[in-house]
Amino acid sequence: ATGDGDGKNTKKPVADPGSEAGSMLAGFQTEKIMRESSREKNIFIHGKMGSGPNEGQDAVLILEKTPFREDSLAELFKTSELKLQMRNDIYSTYHMHPPAHLNDIKATVVCPATEKHIKKYQSQELFLIQESGEDYRNITLPYIQEQSFSVQWVYNILEKKAEADRIVFEDPDPQNGFVLLPDFKWDQKQLDDLYLIAICHQREIKSLRDLTREHLPLLQNIQQQGQEAIMKRYSVPSCRLRVYLHYQPSYYHLHVHFTVLGYEAPGCGVERAHLLSDVIQNLQTDTQHYRTRTLTYPLRADDALLHKLREAGRF
Amino acid sequence: ATGDGDGKNTKKPVADPGSEAGSMLAGFQTEKIMRESSREKNIFIHGKMGSGPNEGQDAVLILEKTPFREDSLAELFKTSELKLQMRNDIYSTYHMHPPAHLNDIKATVVCPATEKHIKKYQSQELFLIQESGEDYRNITLPYIQEQSFSVQWVYNILEKKAEADRIVFEDPDPQNGFVLLPDFKWDQKQLDDLYLIAICHQREIKSLRDLTREHLPLLQNIQQQGQEAIMKRYSVPSCRLRVYLHYQPSYYHLHVHFTVLGYEAPGCGVERAHLLSDVIQNLQTDTQHYRTRTLTYPLRADDALLHKLREAGRF
Predict the structure, then answer these.
(1) CB-side exposure of A3: number of CA atoms within 13 Å?
(2) Which of B17, B91, B122, B252 is the least buried, fewest Cβ under 10 Å from its Cβ?
(3) CATH of segment(s) A126-311
């Protein structure tokens, strides 16, 4: 949901399917539509609960239409009412009204919601940054250093202190080795949204910006052994895999994304993703490529780095 | 729907909202699920009509959940049944059952559907191609030339024989000039999916592969004047615009895509899109960049170019 491609989410809710809620949203008062997607058929609403134990409290309400289920299609056809909307030659469109139980909506309520929760779901304007090599050294690098973002959870994985059972492949070499494991967004139940992450054992590489020709063996190793391991475990060949880095990454320890072609993974857009095969070619041509090039990337309006760049008059 | 980013669609269906269709799908026999997206909540089904004038005929049925409508939210809250699914701390999720008229499905029927229609909607596996400069000259370029794809519709636009009223901006210079107009996928009703195309007046540039340093004035002109024109007409500043080329393009006459950041336009993924700002930097560094580099791109399983590459043992 963060669009990061590799955020961690450890919250494990407890199911409680027996309870009833009836019409607890009946008096819900909408204050603001925070975000909506007509493509994904969802909407994020900030409002106040109208009845029940949380009456008058701030809430975030997330509504999302549910996917079609193959096993209920026959019943859907049998029991739905159709209204013709338009007809032209062999094409016709209809409004279809299925019975309620075949067409539910998933509703998520966060209540009481604090300012922070509300901010989290608020859609933020994005700004495209053109960061020169100099901008990186003068603004971005000092910002990363002063924030000293923790990557302890990454070290826990590399040291097998956490998620050891999730590891799909490991090359333990301290220089060119890496660990390959499923991204948290992938539930591993189907291959259409296959998403794995390779995390290198070397701890000194923050991002694309640190890469030089000396890292070519590491990068080539991740590409080749990562692809082979995915073929072996999931039978997905390399010609079906999109292999790329993010810049900016969501954490500053070098990692590589493997997603299946045809799955529009969050963060695989041209404004943030860099194909590993292009990175390798660029470094082969010029070892200074990622130190000197102007790199383009998006930042959210509330990103502290955006404010740093703005203060420096670079935006 | 083709995922091209710039396909043409001239079919204009005639509305006929008065008619009723009742339960015409009641006996629909599913033969195959051709494609489905749980993210977009749609499904494409091949089957046979069960009743009515087209009984027994092949049909393609497309079902899609509809987006939420802000103006009916209050009624939705008031009239929907909720069933608690799980609760954990401040988070709870529900199954929500709204009355049918607040939750319709858009159904599209293509009937009778020929083999060709069915093939069109069938999801095709994608393959990632690594095309060297040599592959381009030996396989791809001869293929493009022997196909002699028509770009007459592009010339019609450039000569004002078609779509003249849609032009947002023009620089008539024959060398560095271009025409800017909305892409057909953008209905221009809202800015969240803003999508424009710049088509250059020069007719000799087929794609990225033909670009050299001599084209820098053209490319810089498209970037600068295109961004200015979009700011002037739509008040969307350049830091909100993703400006890129496709490789492979869907037609072989140089054109540049302008889409708004935050809109995941089809074809803006790293495996097909090339940021214009990167293209300019690459050519500034090396005039031969796009003649010599290995370029990565996806092809559908049924693409004739894929078969050519396979015949040549390159895949």
Answers:
(1) 17
(2) B17
(3) 3.30.428.10
Judged by a CB distance cut-off of 8 A, whether residue B56 touches chain A is: no
Sequence spans of domains, chain B: 1-66+104-123, 69-102, 126-311
Rounded to whole angstroms, how far apart are CA atoms B282 and A259?
A: 26
What pLDDT tens digit does each residue of chain B (315 aa) get? 333 434 444 444 444 444 456 778 888 999 999 998 888 899 999 999 987 788 999 999 999 999 898 889 999 999 999 999 888 888 888 999 998 888 889 999 999 998 888 888 888 889 999 999 999 999 999 999 998 778 888 999 999 998 889 999 999 999 999 999 999 778 787 788 899 999 999 999 999 999 999 999 999 999 999 999 999 999 999 999 999 999 999 899 999 999 999 888 989 999 999 999 999 999 999 999 999 999 999 999 989 999 999 999 887
How many angstroms separate the CA of residue A180 from the nearest CA in chain B? 21
CA distance to A111, A119, A120, A213, per residue, from A114 (Å): 8, 9, 10, 48
Q: Say what the ipTM of the complex is.
A: 0.77
Instruction: List, as ranges, residues 92-111 from B with C-beta within 8 Å of A.
Output: 92-101, 103-111
Q: Which residues of A are catalytic?
A: 255
B196 touches chain A (CB under 8 A): no
Strand partners, A244: A257, A275
Please state, in angstroms and as integers, the Cα–Cα distance from residue A255 to each residue in A10, A202, B5, B113, following that order.
20, 10, 30, 47
Evaluate whether the domain defined by A29-121 bears CATH number 3.20.20.70. Answer: no
* B101 classed as catalytic: no
**Looking at chain B from residue 232 to 291, which residues have their Cβ under 8 Å from any Cβ of chain A?**
238-242, 244, 261-262, 264, 268-271, 273-275, 277-278, 281, 285-286
CA distance A86 to A94: 7
Best residue in A90, A111, A283 for a mutation probing chain B (most B CBs within 10 Å): A90
* Contact call for A77 and B26, based on CB within 8 A: yes
